């Protein structure tokens, strides 16, 4: 049995660009993009849910299956960005002004689910994207469950991630097989053990949410910001501690290649309250700095 809800578009809207931050690589088993639609498999407080989100010229139609269908449809507008206020953004550079004009359909989404964004962010700590995406894919498929709803007409292999207890019980050799070192796996287990407390961060003000997440050893400013950007739709949750973001922002706004976190934060200071949105606009439309530094070494710990 399925449930349906429609969300009238508030104006220009880009479903794929807005929800794209929730997708962890092209083969993410919990999120798939198809022409004009997005499929999501989530674990809500009421249980698993599969969402099919289809955009037309006037609305987004959401069809939901599973025990979490009511929960997910109740929060559909927030998920799609209805609580976001892109009109509050004031451009202070020609680049951000042009990007904001060219991307009027970009909205910051709010899932209301902390663990769903936290765990893949932990897996992305200090490794390449490909390594992190592979680990997420393998672990979700191995310890999650097939997404609810009819198998016909949806992407093959759609899965719901494990619940908190499931993450805490992943054996050490399975982390190793997925290429996840002991430091990251221990962080996931610690987070899973206090999951109810962490989930409260979705309803907290930004400083309190960041502080709550960082009480867990192994979760620092980078991981906390990446999490609340998605779970809370926070427009000011700028990411610090990233390998590439400071240089990309610095290069886009000044033409210089040597920006660090302090320099990036100084450049984004005029956007206080909207720094994450400014960074997303810069990455979406700004010039890309040529990478001259050596690429991060890919470590296959599963073979060690």
From TrEMBL:
The keyword Chaperone does not apply. SUPFAM superfamilies: DNA-glycosylase (SSF48150). InterPro entries: Alkylbase_DNA_Glycosylase/TA, DNA_glycosylase. The keyword Magnesium does not apply. GO terms for biological process: base-excision repair, AP site formation; DNA alkylation repair. Signal peptide: none annotated. One of its GO terms (molecular function) is alkylated DNA binding. It comes from the Bacteria. Keywords: DNA damage, DNA repair. One of its GO terms (cellular component) is protein-DNA complex. Coiled coil: none annotated. This is DNA-3-methyladenine glycosylase 2 family protein. It comes from Streptomyces chumphonensis.
């Amino acid at each position: 049995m399925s449930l349906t809800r429609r969300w009238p578009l508030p104006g220009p809207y880009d479903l794929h660009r807005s929800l794209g931050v929730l997708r962890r690589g092209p083969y993410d088993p919990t999120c798939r993009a198809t022409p004009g639609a997005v499929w999501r498999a989530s674990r809500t407080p009421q249980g698993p849910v599969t969402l099919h989100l289809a955009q037309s010229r006037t609305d987004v139609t959401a069809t939901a299956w599973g025990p979490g269908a009511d929960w997910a449809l109740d929060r559909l507008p927030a998920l799609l960005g209805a609580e976001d206020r892109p009109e509050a953004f004031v451009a202070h550079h020609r680049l951000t002004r042009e990007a904001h004009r060219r991307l009027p359909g970009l909205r910051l989404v709010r899932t209301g689910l902390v663990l769903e964004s936290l765990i893949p962010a932990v897996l992305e700590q200090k490794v390449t994207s490909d390594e992190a995406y592979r680990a997420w894919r393998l672990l979700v498929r191995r310890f999650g469950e097939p997404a609810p709803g009819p198998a016909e007409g949806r992407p093959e292999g759609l899965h719901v991630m494990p619940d908190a207890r499931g993450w805490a019980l992943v054996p050490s050799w399975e982390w190793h097989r997925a290429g996840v070192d002991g430091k990251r796996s221990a962080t996931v287990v610690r987070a899973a053990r206090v999951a109810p407390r962490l989930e409260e961060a979705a309803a907290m003000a930004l400083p309190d949410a960041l502080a709550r997440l960082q009480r867990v050893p192994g979760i620092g400013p980078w991981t906390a910001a990446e999490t609340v950007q998605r779970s809370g739709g926070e427009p000011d949750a700028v990411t610090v501690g990233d390998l590439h973001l400071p240089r990309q922002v610095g290069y886009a706004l000044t033409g210089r290649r040597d920006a660090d976190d302090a320099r990036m934060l100084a450049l984004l200071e005029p956007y206080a309250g909207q720094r994450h949105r400014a960074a997303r606009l810069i990455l979406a439309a700004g010039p890309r700095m040529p990478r001259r530094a050596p690429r991060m070494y890919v470590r296959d710990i599963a073979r060690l």
